[in-house]
Amino acid sequence: MDQFRGTPYAQVDLRVARPFKIGERARVNPFVEFFNLFNRNNPGNNYVGDVSALPVPVNDISNATAFCLDVTCSTSTPITSPNQVKFPAGALGDFFGPGTTVGIPFAAQIGVRVTF
What we know:
Layout: E1 14-17, E2 20-22, E3 26-35, E4 66-68, E5 76-78, E6 107-115
Antiparallel strand pairs: 1-3, 2-3, 3-6, 4-5
């Protein structure tokens, strides 16, 4: 299973703020926040670990050497690298198929904080 380890988890969050003074007591602090700035998919080590659970059928479950391209497996594509069988399994609580909750999508928000 060591060949199925993913790339390390990496996520960039950024907050940009610039305070402004208004008078002696009031301050306005507008800000912009970005979450998962580069919109990177982070499956980590959470991949499908069983060949029979892959979303693409294989030619032989006991010794998979090719992916089937049709239902009868009359045409197939050979598996030449372990990276070809890496399919994200989703995060915890994933009940809607592989990869639906992997990673946090890019998000941004703007706001203003007023202190007086």
